[in-house]
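Case 294 in the screening queue. Each case pairs one protein sequence with one candidate compound; here the compound is adenosine-5'-diphosphate. For every case the pipeline is the same: read the inputs, emit a complex structure as tokens, and attach any notable structural observations.

Predict complex for case 294.
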Amino acid sequence: FRCSSKIELVKANTTLKLNKLYEKYPNSEFYSVENFDLQIKDKEFIVFVGPSGCGKSTTVRMIAGLEDITEGELYIDETLVNDIAPKDRDIAMVFQNYALYPHMTVYDNMAFTLKLKKVDPQVIDQKVRAAAETLGITAYLDRKPKALSGGQRQRVLLARALAANPSLLLLDEPFTGVDAPTQTTLTRLYRELAGEGITILMSTHDMLAARESCSRLCGVRGNIHLDGPADSFSLEQLHTWLHGHDIEEAQGHARTGFTCAGGALDEYGHELPDSCASDHSLSPAHTAATGGAR
Ligand code: ADP
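Case 294 output:
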């Protein structure tokens, strides 16, 4: 399928500030998220990447308002939202365990939240159809979810989120159960939406998907270890970091420049004039030579 944005942005200016966020679940003895500091600019397409269990979903769920924040402050557009209910945060979400209402058609699924908000039925119809066209699902509007494939359902979930004209879109592992061509098309759409003014935050454990999709990549392990433009990290470096080896080196390289097959890159992905040989690429000696980890 092909898709391109047909939705109309209501507000195109969203920033997010996470100030030393901590999450300790009531039934847990340890912190799932610790000292998480992050500022997200308007129109950024940011991806949290990291191993399973490192706290990506918990952080995204705190932003959505689905988990109480144990400690720290969360600001959306400079407003402290720690105690603001999810429905009042002007955020749309597509989460891996989100479901469609099985007894409703695709159209009714998409219109449901807007009806609850008592939006004018004509406006609802226009928003639902624009979002359906964006995701290429207009032909399925009268179907029930069980008559859709996994990829089509994922597109309906995204269309339902977009119908609400969000200024911030949260995607938690959005490629689970999605085939490769659909993933490519959706990635292109996310970039387009970010370019048009929707700030997007996605979590994934998939390094390749992360690196190829977003504008800014954050490597997460309870807090942020890596942070920079997606193409400034080589896949080799991300794998090294993901599998837990040489974390300090990976951090050092992320912050001071690191070497990939083509030569040394600075933290913005530009090639350095005197490229070091790749055999020094991830060695402690090179880390020390370039300034080391923080
Ligand atoms: P990720 O999304 O990176 O896979 P999560 O945020 O889901 O990681 O989980 C981070 C940690 O918090 C894990 O150790 C997980 O077991 C724990 N955790 C997640 N949800 C809960 C919960 N509802 N209660 C207790 N512990 C939880």
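Case 294 observations:
- Residues 180-196 form the longest helix (17 residues).
- The pocket of adenosine-5'-diphosphate is lined by residues 25, 27-28, 32, 50, 52-58 (CB under 6 Å).
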